[in-house]
Amino acid sequence: MHEGHRNRLKDRFLREGLDGFESHNVLELLLFYSIPQRDTNELAHLLINKFGSVSDVFDAPLEALMSVPGIKKHSAVLLKLIPEIARYYYSKAGETHEQFDNVDKIGKMLINKYVGVTDETVYLLLFDNKFKLLDCIKVYEGSVNSVHISPRKMIEPAIIKRASMVVLAHNHPGGVPIPSSEDINTTCVLKNAFDLVGITLLEHILVEQNKYVPLLLRSNGLLRQYPQVSGFYSGITQDFYSEE
After folding, report:
1. For residues 1-19, b (16+ Cβ closer than 10 Å) or e, as one string?
2. Of 56, 88, 120, which marks where a domain is finished?
3. Which of 1, 2, 102, 122 has a Cα-to-Cα distance from 234 of 20 to 30 A?
4. Does residue 214 share a domain with residue 104?
């Protein structure tokens, strides 16, 4: 009986995709691949009831997932793997552009980079003088401030890779994409440091879910020093000056 139900659910997915699935059906289908001999429908309902949504299930700590009766480490690891696979897929797909010659391309690529990331994470993107992405380096996990994000830690990889331009990025997990005073202060320090070694800090981009905010542009004069590159801020439609 279970095998027939599993085959029907798999065939439905192949015909329709996941758009018409209830939340518990998505988890039920996924758990087929870690729990081969048990009805996973009940487990899927338990997970949704405990955590609230599919995304909340994927974002839950491993230990919390394993506290649900019937979810062992094998299944918990599979659940934790899904957002990581999504993040990896979208970040690599976003890096196929030959040139990131405006802030919108970079912002959209970074939104993909942060899919499934639940801790505050700092990336440094390195570009040559034709806006080709040389590297994307995770430099820190934790709060963004001038104590942890030292200029030396940023400048050394940029010099090693012979980058002409860099973009700093970090996220506000579970928050709003509004920069803090510490974000602004750290950007000032790093911008001045990169200027001293002849490398342009193009932007410091703040990401939260499907939104991004370029801090240098949004600072409205406090930090704004447009790079000498025509059109870098072209194509922006969102008002980044507003507090909303």
Report:
1. eeeeebeebeeeeeeeeee
2. 88
3. 122
4. yes
Q: How far apart are CA 80 and CA 209, in angstroms?
A: 18
Phi, psi of 126 (to 5 degrees): -110, 130
CA–CA dist 129, 127 (Å, integer): 7
pLDDT tens-digit readout, 50-93? 999 999 999 999 999 999 999 999 999 999 999 889 878 876 66
DSSP string, 197-235: TT-EEEEEEEEETTEEEEHHHHTTTSS----S-TTTTTT
Environment class of 25 (CB within 10 Å of its CB; exposed 0-12, middle 13-18, buried 19+): middle
Give the chain's domain count: 2
> Do 34 and 130 lie in a common domain?
no
Q: Is residue 120 part of a domain?
A: yes
